[in-house]
Every structure is written in C-alpha cells, then in structure tokens.
Amino acid sequence: MFYLFIDILGTVAFAISGVLVAMEKKLDVFGVFIIAFVTATGGGTLRDLLIGNTPVAWMLTPLYIVTIAITVLVAIVFVRHLSRFRKSLFLFDTIGIGLYTMVGVEKGLEAGLLPIMCIALGTMTASFGGVIRDILCNEIPVIFRKEVYATVCILGAILYFVLVNLSVDAKWAYVSGITFIIALRLLAVRFKLSLPNIHGAK
Amino acid sequence: MFYLFIDILGTVAFAISGVLVAMEKKLDVFGVFIIAFVTATGGGTLRDLLIGNTPVAWMLTPLYIVTIAITVLVAIVFVRHLSRFRKSLFLFDTIGIGLYTMVGVEKGLEAGLLPIMCIALGTMTASFGGVIRDILCNEIPVIFRKEVYATVCILGAILYFVLVNLSVDAKWAYVSGITFIIALRLLAVRFKLSLPNIHGAK
Amino acid sequence: MFYLFIDILGTVAFAISGVLVAMEKKLDVFGVFIIAFVTATGGGTLRDLLIGNTPVAWMLTPLYIVTIAITVLVAIVFVRHLSRFRKSLFLFDTIGIGLYTMVGVEKGLEAGLLPIMCIALGTMTASFGGVIRDILCNEIPVIFRKEVYATVCILGAILYFVLVNLSVDAKWAYVSGITFIIALRLLAVRFKLSLPNIHGAK
C-alpha cells in the first residue's frame, strides 16, 4: 500500500515532466501522451525487463495508464493558465527521480540481487524514462549534462543500505533515501555543484 | 495460418519502408538490411519482451529473417528502376501499421491482458519499429510529427473489441480493424487531418 | 573459465571505447562511467533479453560492474598522459566486436537456436553497445557509416560454424572466429574496403 502510493506519485511526477518537454516541442495531443507515458513507464519497464518481471508492471493493472492519462489531461489544462514551467519541470523531474530510485532498489531486493545491483537498478529505474524522453524529443539526455543526476540516485540508494544496516526501520530508510535524493539534487543545482570534469580547466 | 500470413505481410511492408528510409540516407547494403530488419522486427520484439515471450518470435523460425532478406534484395532491385518512392514508403508504412496493430492485440489477448493493454500493445507493436528506424537514421520519429498515427492504431484496435463485443466473428473483426486503420490513415493524410495542437493557433 | 576470460576482456575493450567517446564529448565522471557501462553491457543485455536469460548476466555477479569501474578509472588516468587516442578507440572497439560476437554465438547455441539466429545474436551482441553509445552521445552509429562492421561479425560467426562442421575443435573454431573478425576489420579499414554502395557512383 505504501509502496504503491510512492509508485503512483512517481508516475505522476514523471508524466508531468514528459508533458512539459513534449509541449515545448509542440507535439500534438497524442505525441504529448506518448512522451508522458514513456517518461513515466520507461524506467520501470527497463527494470522489469532486466530482472525478468514480465508482463511488465504497467501491463498488469490499468492503474498506471489511467493515472498517466489523467495527469496528462490535468497538466495540459494547468499549463494553459501558466506561462513558464522550467522550474516545475525540474522540480517534478527531481521528485520522480527520488521516488523511482527507491522503487527500483525495492524490486532489486525482491529479486534477490546484491545491494550494488539494487543501487544500479534503482538508478536506472530513475534515469531511463528521462533518457528516452530526451532521445525521442531529440535533446541530449539531461542525465549526461553538466549537473549531478545519477550521482544523487546512487548516494540516496547507498544511504538506504547504510541505514538498514544500522537497524533503521526499512520504511524510514526508504523515505530517507527519497528525501535525501530530492534535497541533494535541489541543493546541487541551487549551488551549481557539479562533478569534477575530467578535462581539468573547462 | 491466417495470423501467420498477416504477420509475414506486415514484415514485408515494414522491411520495405525500412529499405526506403535507409537508401535515402545512402547507407551501404548491410546498413540497409539492418534498418529493414529493425523496422520489421522492432515492434514485435518490444511486444514479446514486454509480455515475456522469449526467445522473441523472430528467433524461433528462420521465416522472418529470410523474408526480410528476400524483401531487401527485391526492394533494392525494384528501387533501382524507379525514381521516386515517397508515396510507396507512406503506403507500405500504413499497411504495416494496420497489420502489426492487430497482431499485437492478438498476442495481448493470448497473454491474458486487459483490452486496454491489448490496445496499447498493438499500438506499440505497430509504432516501435518505425520509431527505432527513424532514431537510427537520425530523423524525428514519424509518429511524433504532425499527422495522426498512433491515433488510428488505437481507434482500429478499439473497433476490433467493439465488433467482438457485438458478436462479430473474431476473424472478421480482425480484418475490419486492419482495414479501418489503413483507410483512416490514408484518408487522414489525404485530407490533411491532424490532432488538435495544444498550442492553439499554430 | 575460458569463456569467462573472453567475456571480461571484451568488457574491458568496450568500456575503454565508451570512455574515449564520452571524454571526447567532455562528459563528467559519471557520464563517462555510464557511457562505458552501457557500451560494455548493452550488447549482452539485449542478447539476454531476446533469449529470456533474466536477470541479465551483469546483474548476477559484481564481476562486470567492478571490471568496468576499474577500467574507467585506469582509462581516465591513462588518457591524461597521452594526447590522441583515435587509433586506440578503433582498436579496442574492434577487439570488443570480435570477442562479443563469439560470446553471443555461444549463448545462442546454449539457448538451442538455429545457426543463422546464433550469427544474428552474435552480431547484435557485438554491435548494440556501440550503437547505444553513439546514440547517447548524439553521433550517427559507427555501424551505419561507410566501413564494414556488421559484415565482419557475420563472416566471423559463419567461419565458426564452417570450422565446427569440418570437425575443428570448438575452442579453436571460437578463437579463429574472434581472430578473423579482428584481422578482417583492421585490414578493411587499412585498405579502405567498404561494402558496395547501392547508389552506384555516390
């Protein structure tokens, strides 16, 4: 029940981020829906395929597809009444990343994977939807640009395992991981932190 | 037998559409074959992966790979003797879309999915090959451009379920779905129908 | 043991080719790691997904992820002390292609596929990592450019089946396939061989 709620919230957050990118590209209604759908389900689909959870999660219940459809409709109406959404795009993207990372970690644990693989799986769950969104919209994926992104997912997932090993209740460790990822990414962008560039100077 | 025939016909149609795009990009013989192969098998591969039908369909029989190889050879010879193929590209793409949508719906039903998921699966089967083709050839996917595309797949798949619910024989509902998709897309492009653009004016 | 060694060597070779492309694009440390990881595991992941080997190979042991991490670190340090790496990029890419083609053929045989499907699977194992690398780095995939690439994989895989049918020991046939692919690609590029372009003059 708790995990389902988190999953739906992440779906909404990523779907909105997909809508905003797609609308900037002036796609038609269905193009917008498809990009929102791919952004919201892409990471989880890759996750399920890699661990062999088929049919993939979104095919087993109408919950996700209906959530995304409603989100797209609401987002389109909402967008009409506001002018600029760059900040919201970033915020929703960040919330989605935090939520999906931990959902991915959880599924990795269920599949009996090693912690390092759970961390990788969580990071891929969080990033892949955005990567496809950007590739389909012909943009260089956000994840490869100059800000931290995958790094915060990995650190948040590591925090989860550290807390669980310190006997913190799994649910609290879970929420801490999500909060940490969201907070760290917001701070990183606020203070323009970025990973060291290997080329020195530039 | 009937479904196999439809499947092969769709493979030929999509392979030709792949050949035409690849030749326009002046790829070498193998590049052309790869693009044709990916266009023809991409949608079905995604479909089989999502529902867990592995090894995927084209690996279980030499039928598809041989069909595509022959199609590519014939298409290359054929292309040499004609000058412009824009219209054929569009026509073959349309036929492939109609056929693959219904093959996807059928496989979804076999996997016990809900009608809404069968419709989504059919649409993805029909669109994904073309999306990879366009991404590999560095074009913005046709599906996201200004004409209807996914919409006709969805409407055709819905028509199938409506007809079946009205007790129409499944095979006739199937053929009706395919015909409807092909006819609607041809009409839509002929009369320049397109989905409402969310940005109003433009 | 023998196959594991080949697999690790291919992982190192492809990871380095990923590092070099990613550094040319001036990505940050994590971007470089991700591209290296995707280049090294992309082909094998596609291979495992297509034949239904899930969880995919790299998730079942920390071996690959650790190998890639070490390779990336060493490659970054190594790169700092040398100026130009175009030739090494090409060489490592070629070694990776030879190794992965035969690993793919081997896995296809284990899955009971027909020789023609093993050849296709080997070629996809060898090419897909590089294709994703190039797509993510916004380059037209090397595989579709004017040099031979998939062709040598296919010829090498065919050589393997020919030798095995001539009762050559499987291990020697395996090594011959790898060597043939590497040698043929180096020769092809050295002497600027390329497949006939279908457009004649060009």
Class inferred from helices and paired strands of chain A: mainly alpha
Largest interface: A-B, 26 and 29 residues
Major sheet characteristics of chain A: none
End-to-end gap of chain A: 48 Å
Low-confidence stretches of chain A: none
Shape of chain A: globular
Helix amount of chain A: over 70%
Rg of Cα set of chain A: 17 Å
Per DSSP, what share of the residues of chain A sits in E-state strands of 2 or more residues?
Answer: under 5%
Quaternary arrangement of the chains shown? homotrimer
The number of distinct β-strands of chain A equals: 0
Count of helical segments of chain A? 8
- The chain-level mean pLDDT of chain A equals 84
N-to-C order of helices and strands of chain A: HHHHHHHH
Compact summary:
The structure is a homotrimer of 202-residue chains. The first copy, chain A, is mainly α and 202 residues long.
Describe this structure in words.
The structure is a homotrimer of 202-residue chains. The mean pLDDT of chain A is 84. Chain A is mainly alpha-helical. The first copy, chain A, has helices at residues 2-24, 29-51, 57-60, 63-80, 86-110, 115-136, 150-165, 170-190. Helix content of chain A is 75%, strand content 0%. The longest helix of chain A is centred in the middle third of the chain and has 25 residues, at 86-110. In chain A, 51% of the residues are buried. Chain A contains eight helices and no strands. Chain A is globular. Chain A starts with a helix and ends in a 12-residue tail after the last helix. Chain A has a domain at 2-141. The interface between A and B is medium-sized, with 26 and 29 residues.
